[in-house]
Write a structure and sequence with these properties.
By secondary structure, this protein is mainly alpha-helical. It is 57% helix and 2% strand. The radius of gyration is 21 Å and the shape is globular.
């Protein structure tokens, strides 16, 4: 059994790295802290680091002047960059400000490593302790995580807010609402999710694993089933107490 799991893990890692090869050609370092396209390494982090400096150093309206913003970030990096536009709501500026006070590459490391740690902690909370080391390795080497790391993207933050919000809907509704609300830093995510919650209704279950100690338990597909050897809690996402009771009563034994 263990040899089968090891073989599956190896195949998954090889497939993951193979999928990354076409992507790497767009992010490959070309020297001077720039990639082959001409952006600073971790190109999607540019807005996080540059936006607060442009907004608070000049004026907020500069964020929405395409040419002005493009020229401003070129001055911050000391070299003209390929076109780049601001793409976040204004409430993110104070949150991004501390990172903007650090040198770019130190800020990028903190952004990437710190947010991956938060995301991984949420995901691994649904994995049996004995399997967490293996699950962490597989998680870190999935194409989505590798692309986020190489590109300086915000996917770790989006995923952490989404999973944290959904998994706490009934246990900590205020925290859940705050996390889902913060997803509006990517407006298409934060706006769509509340409508999805309303559409599902109070008695619906999400196809995600719930906290490991949920009392209402029934078989449900897990979003981590692709991890060989990773045993995930099989509880449904907790809903209202009445829904939980009725679900238990209606589940075939």
């Amino acid at each position: 059994m263990r040899s089968d799991n090891s073989r599956d893990c190896l195949l998954l890692l090889v497939a993951s790295l193979a999928l990354m090869l076409p992507v790497l050609r767009f992010y490959w370092p070309a020297g001077g802290g720039l990639d082959v396209v001409g952006y600073p390494l971790g190109r999607d982090f540019i807005n996080v680091w540059s936006g607060p400096q442009v907004a608070f150093g000049n004026k907020v309206s500069a964020l929405f002047d395409l040419r002005g913003y493009h020229e401003a970030i070129g001055r911050l990096f000391g070299t003209p960059l390929p076109f780049h536009n601001w793409g976040y709501p204004l409430f993110t500026l104070p949150a991004f400000w501390p990172l903007a006070q650090l040198p770019y590459f130190w800020a990028l490391i903190i952004w990437t490593a710190g947010l991956f740690a938060v995301f991984a902690a949420i995901v691994l909370g649904e994995v049996e302790p004995a399997r967490r080391r293996q699950a962490l390795l597989l998680l870190a080497l999935t194409p989505a995580c590798l692309i986020n790391t190489i590109g300086g993207q915000n996917g770790f933050l989006s995923a952490a807010l989404f999973l944290g919000g959904v998994l706490n809907i009934d246990r900590r509704p205020i925290l859940s609402g705050a996390l889902i609300g913060l997803l509006t830093f990517k407006p298409h995510l934060g706006i769509v999710l509340p409508f999805a919650l309303v559409a599902l209704g109070p008695g619906a279950s999400w196809p995600l694993p719930p906290p490991r100690h949920s009392r209402c338990s029934r078989s449900a597909p897990s979003y981590l089933d692709w991890m060989p050897g990773a045993t995930i809690s099989r509880s449904s996402v907790p809903t209202r107490a009445s829904s939980c009771a009725s679900s238990r009563a209606s589940t075939p034994r």
